[in-house]
Description:
The chain has helices at residues 15-43, 57-87, 95-127, 137-164, 183-202, 263-268, 295-301, 328-331; strands spanning 249-253, 259-261, 272-279, 285-294, 310-314, 323-326, 337-342, 345-346, 356-358, 371-376. By secondary structure, the protein is an alpha+beta fold. The strands form two sheets. A five-stranded mixed sheet has the order 2-1-10-5-6. Strands 3, 4, 7, 8 and 9 form a five-stranded antiparallel sheet that branches. It is elongated and about 80 Å long.
Amino acid sequence: MRMIRPRFTSPLHDARVAMVLGIALGCCLTVAFVTGLFSHFLQHPGPLAWPSRPAGLYRVTQGVHVFTGIAAVPLLLAKLWAVSPRLWQWARPSGWSGWADVAVRRTCTALLVGGALFQLSSGLLNIVYWYPWSFFFTTAHYWTAYLLAGALLVHVVRVTGARRGPMLPGPPAGAVPSPDGGGPGRRRFLGAVGAASATLVLATVGETVTPLRGLALLAPRSPDVGPQGVPVNKTAVAAKVRVPVGYRLRVRGVVARETAWTLARLGELPQHTVELPIACVEGWSATARWTGVRLRDLLDAAGVAPDARVRVESLQHGGLYRTSEIGPRHWHDEATLLALRCNGEVLAADHGYPCRLIAPNRPGVQQTKWVTELVVR
Length: 377
Ligand SMILES: Nc1nc2c(c(=O)[nH]1)N[C@H]1C(S)=C(S)[C@@H](COP(=O)(O)O)O[C@H]1N2
Ligand SMILES: [Mo]
């Protein structure tokens, strides 16, 4: 059997180019991994109870998560292109250990390339709200992150070991040495890749960094377009929410006394105003002025244990985000409200009328709208 070996003639298929891109890409992926884990564990709290402060922390970490992911896209494409000769170069090892070594290396490369492509493409599609797949994005993105992190770690150990040891990779097959030694061409290429990353970020980051919103030509969301100046992820119509005539906000479960509040009685309780962002996992965020009742006042009125966890139920019947859980550190926070008003007006139907949860340092997906019950556990 004859092997077909593609010809690679660009001087940029070069170990230094690959290394610089690899370091930048590795930094982006590591930051995205750490901020992604933070987001995951805020949404799936285990024994660790995350603090409710700083109030805007999640907005920052999730912004960093999404925008390092976006910055990584040109880096990954350029890196794959730079190393492509090596990807198609098939070693012909001798002996079992040789084959085993090749198998391990190829598996690691497949996980690395496949994992990075999957994470970045699924993340990108998710932030533009396009789900052309049947798996659950969050679960797949979460578990693939560990695979990718593992493969990345093995790769870094191998590459740094190889640089020190005798197995320094030679020039890839077919690459011709650059006439100028690779200097200016290499710098131009790396500069162009960096500029592509920066441009992509600048053209989208305005969806969370409001001063840059004028530049956000490619952003999936404008942070100030929507009823009451706040974007909407799911409208009341899409969620099929109808507010019953005899609406009550009930507090039940493990309580000293069950309570049920009409909207009028909620309005008679002490009202508080907080300025807090909705920070969507998809990367956009928007600050608003929310006015309403402190969650802890309602729970105290029902005689709830201080370490209780509370399930927040909405009027929505189906859908993954119809309920959320809130732990003691968040519900004790004085800024955690059941908001009745947004930016000075009665809450719009799409923002959760009659009332919605708003809490500091909490993903948007857990700022439950159309709240009807607090079930104490
Ligand atoms: N009941 C309910 N609450 C919900 C949602 C939902 O689908 N149903 N979406 C959540 C998501 S993903 C976000 S980002 C915020 C957005 O709030 P907003 O539409 O008021 O901006 O609401 C959250 N609250
Ligand atoms: Mo969201």
